Every structure is written in structure tokens, then in C-alpha cells.
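ok so for the tutorial part 2 we go from a plain amino acid sequence to predicted C-alpha cells. step 1 is just haveing the sequence, like this:
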Amino acid sequence: MLRIVIFLILLLMASAYALWKGGGPERMMATILLGMLVVDQLVHLLIPAQFASVDTAHLALDLIAALLTFMLAMTAHRFWPMVAAVLQTLPLLAHFSRLADVGMHPIAYLTMQVAASWLLPPLLAAATWRHQTRLRRSGSDQSWQPSSLQSHLPRVFR
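step 2 — the prediction. this is what the C-alpha cells look like for a chain of 158 residues:
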């Protein structure tokens, strides 16, 4: 239980920092992470977590998070979203491993699902700090690739 509280504190602090001081990609990632947190809590209220078989609710949540983060990585003018996309893809490997090996121990399945998520808050905090460093050094920091649909994003993500 303590590890969950520690993770939530790290996630909320990194997300708040990104929403306050980050550029568009940092704010977008914070929104993705906070959205995952809210949906995950709703899933736990409605559907009990199951690790003895494939957890389809978390498979769907992890798939959506991986797709959103991959889209962020393809449009952001930053390197770190590619790392975040890989970290968001790792839980999918847990689900597919569970499908392939039904004899997998439930603790191994749980660990594979959540371990990579511990790296996302420090990555987001470091990305936000780097954004602030670039702003101080040059006065600007391009957030999005020139070919991305930047004009269609809400102002908060530009």
C-alpha cells in the first residue's frame, strides 16, 4: 500500500510541475497520465483486478495509453516522448505474455504491468526541467514538429 501512495505522490507532483511549467508535449503527457489514473480508479471500482487471467480492462487502458503516447512521440519536437512511448508499450507485453503463458504467476503478471510506470513521473519531471532550461537559454522551445496538426490542438497544449 505504501508503494502505491509513493507512486501517486510522484505522479501527481510530476504532473503538476509539467502542467505548470511544461511545454505542450509535457502538458499533454501529464494529461495522459492523469487520465490513465482516473480511468484506472474507475476500472477498479467497477471491475475487480484479476491477475490469474488476462486483465482485459487494463489491456484496453494500456493500449489506449500506448497509442496516445505514440501519437505524442510522433508529433512532439522532443526525444523523451519516444522513451515514454516505449515505457507505455511494456505493459502490453505483459498482457501478451499472459496470453502466451497461462501458467505465469499472477505476481509476475502484475509486476510486468506496473513496473515500467514507475519511470514515467521522473521522465516527465526531467523533461519539464529540460524545457525550462531551453527556455532560459534561448527564450523559446519549439513544442511540435512543423508537420504536426499544431493548430488543431487546444491552446493549453501549444
